[in-house]
Amino acid sequence: MTSQPLINADRLWSRLMALAEIGATPAGGVNRQALSDGEIAAWRRVIGWAGEAGLTPSTDAAGNLFLTLAGRDRGVPPLLLGSHLDSQPTGGKFDGAAGVMAALEAVVSLAGQDEKPARDVIVVAWMNEEGSRFAPGMMGSEAFTGEHDMDAIRAARDADGVSVGEALDRVHQALPDVPHRPLGFTTSAYLELHIEQGPLLEAAACTIGIVTGIQGKKTFQVVVEGSEGHAGTLAQSERRDALAAFARMASALHAEIGTIDTDIKFTIGRVAVVPYAPSVVPSRVSFSIDLRHPDNAVLDAAGVRIATLCKANASPCAVTVTPLVDAPSNAFDARLRADIGKAAREQGHSAMTMLSAAGHDARHLAKVCPAAMIFIPCRDGASHVEHEWAEPDHVAAGASVLAQVLRELAFAPAIEG
Amino acid sequence: MTSQPLINADRLWSRLMALAEIGATPAGGVNRQALSDGEIAAWRRVIGWAGEAGLTPSTDAAGNLFLTLAGRDRGVPPLLLGSHLDSQPTGGKFDGAAGVMAALEAVVSLAGQDEKPARDVIVVAWMNEEGSRFAPGMMGSEAFTGEHDMDAIRAARDADGVSVGEALDRVHQALPDVPHRPLGFTTSAYLELHIEQGPLLEAAACTIGIVTGIQGKKTFQVVVEGSEGHAGTLAQSERRDALAAFARMASALHAEIGTIDTDIKFTIGRVAVVPYAPSVVPSRVSFSIDLRHPDNAVLDAAGVRIATLCKANASPCAVTVTPLVDAPSNAFDARLRADIGKAAREQGHSAMTMLSAAGHDARHLAKVCPAAMIFIPCRDGASHVEHEWAEPDHVAAGASVLAQVLRELAFAPAIEG
Which A residues in the span 219-238 are in contact with B, Cβ-Cβ below 8 Å? Predict the structure, then answer.
């Protein structure tokens, strides 16, 4: 099977670097927000490359992009593989983009074969995985799997007040030649390659991570309400200072939740102060909480404790804690995991099983079809940063393993999870 | 002296309300930032009203607006009176505007008299008193008195990256007919009317506050530097979370500095988090500190302690504490305070002496000439809020006292501080 290369590694790398020019930041990273002009430009480029190999583009009401290689039997559920094209505001070249481009390379290489696959094979780029422009993330895959209602998704707004609905319509208007397909369809399997976004593969000098599952995640939006006042005249005892209450909450949360055990991850990444003037006592502070743990029982208990700690430190202000994401930890498909291990072994790549500390769209696909993920190392375990880096050899190895698993599934008469 | 009204109270009130339409907010307040389009519009309106009474406009390199009533002897140092036209983002109709409009009304009424004043009388609107768009505040009066260098002032930038220099040039270009005068000139006295921005006059049912001085103020800009990372993968023990360090600092500062005594005022009004994404560990948090106290020894000790507390709570992040404003408490001119008390008494207004808890441009003028301030009550002591309110009778009483003090100075052959 591996006498012929399964992919063109040089083409993959050069396309991945070309994609990183869209939204490139001065520090070498990428800022390509969901449904932005940058994402439209990325769609155009990816659609162009896919078109050269005979793949046809389509989209759905959730703004997911599909690139289809037609199979012999168009009536059976297709294979899906991909990731996302949006990035963090100071993100890197690989998070999401590596998965979409590896999938495209695997399918383009398959399209170059004489034999047609048994079923359709579709590359997907999910809408708003990151959740940085519109919260929460993974909107596209949640809409696809029916976990989240499109009306609710369309109503979310970015910091400038633009709704997902408005931004989505704008993307679709910018690409009038991309036909629309119904939202959600039966899929025979889902595969996603991603950089690890952690240090384990690098530390073990291992090229391929066979992902067993994704750690659980909860997110919250917390709003502290106090009263505005003049910084020079209002006595401390008369104040309802929302920032002072926030400081107590954040300090207590970091001290207690952040030290539950060595697996816990606790982050306050956004804090917005109103009215935001140096000489006005803040009337309102809103902030985000991101909480993760591989053990659902620990995760649930920490979630309850977060609300308690916020309330205990609010007085004399009021506080509301709104849960956003509530995603328990999950396990990926055993047969697909075995296929990934076999492909890595046959291709001579070192491989290890591992849990994903980060969330991915595959978490949602795993609820509706057999799903699995392939990890490749990233330098220093750094991701969501502008200097995020994956070695060309590792990108090629991951894509080649993905291509082998894809080919075995694509020509199989039936797929069982 | 008081047989004839010294001002037209109805004209003053209607002009004050008309001014409040510029930058009016939906909740009834005012958002008129320094050197903004709103301030340009306010200048135009004020220049128009002044022109009807024969006052001539001029400006200086610091963007202060002057409206001059020519006196008999143009060679002697003029009288200066006024306040500022800029507001907080969610400010009210009276902070600053009441002082400029009371000064204008007093001078316009004076211009209507047969006898010319002995010296020039100039209404002033100082540039950027609030410091909310460009930090720190009181740039115009500090430039006028030579305490702050124009190059440094011009280099300060707002949140959108616009410099004071750019914004200032834009204001001057928008008003090409307003002649320029050299920055800073010898002044024989300075008077400023302002709402109290505190509850003391209202609580004492008193109409006129004779301000003895201004409490001392220090401001700081603090920057916490950590390292960016992925919220789902980076272990807590590996993090240099700038927000976690900020929470510890802010919590400790509020707990210790905010409770020094009942006179201390401690405010963190602005917090900026970078990169500002829910699933990225913050690499940088910058925040403002506003500290006030009437006793300079307490103020100085608290200032030193602030830097110590920031450093003690920074690890594993780095912190830099940059002092911005360092304004000790000051005392106003004894003779002018006596004049204000005498005018209030003769006009039948209840009056009390009091310390100003808030900073004002008069603080800086007091270093270069005899200066004093007149306070009038504001409802519930509330200021820097959209529902800020002063009664029409109180505005009229304050302006009338200001007008009487002005007339006595304006016709005096010499003024001694």
Answer: 219, 228-237
